[in-house]
Amino acid sequence: MPHMLILGMGYTASRLAARLRQAGWEVAGVRRAADPQSIAFDDESAVHAAIARATHILSSVPPEGEFDPVLTRYGAAIAAAPALWTGYLSSTGVYGDASGAWVDEGSPTGSGRRGARVRADADWGALRPDMRRFRLPGIYGPGRSALDRVREGRAHRIDLPDQVFSRAHVDDIGEGIVASFDGPPGIYNLSDDLPCAQNRLIEAACAMLGRPAPPLLTLEQAALSPMARSFYAENRRVANGRAKRLLGWSPRYPTYREGLAACLAEAG
């Protein structure tokens, strides 16, 4: 039986774990605190045993400060593990600002605001020859989409018509990871087919829920948190052709329209 070890059980990883378990996989997770299906990150003996046993190893843990905690504590063990497949969930933020132009896996990295993420991406790529690095854009899905922001009164429309974001439905990311089990190692952008302004998602979500769109605000008027505001410092379109060509993957939700409709249907 294939055995997946996932370090970091966040939104995307948890959704992937459920998918694999339904398909008959054994899945072990590692998180800060142990639970019935997960090992505590600090339980080194248990984590080392899980690394040695796994056929597939995936890290979804982002850097903390200047360091990647998984590489710092378990990188040597993962490098020497007998696993058949290894993967790392990175970010398209490594490409930095492209002034709205397209970026692909061959585009330069290191120009963005996430220096630690850029270093972690490179370090994971150098760890093993079988490494798959998945560079992910904005992730949305059930319970975490423009629909939820509209329902909760947290939606904004920012008057930046030339600002473009790429995104991916969480299940399309999971399908891309699964497709890579039989594909070659390397870097893969897992994004949908329609980079666009965030306002279009908010307007579509409002229409689906029968609610008026929030007013159009300047970035200053929106009074966003520093974290939220920082996303508007970069502007790029993420190309997904490599994953399509080499993995035979294609997003089930090629645009936000299909993705939001699926989120609405799942919410009932």
Automatic annotation (TrEMBL):
Matches recorded under InterPro entries: NAD(P)-bd_dom_sf
Highest taxon of the lineage: Bacteria
Keywords, alphabetical: NAD
Full protein name: Epimerase
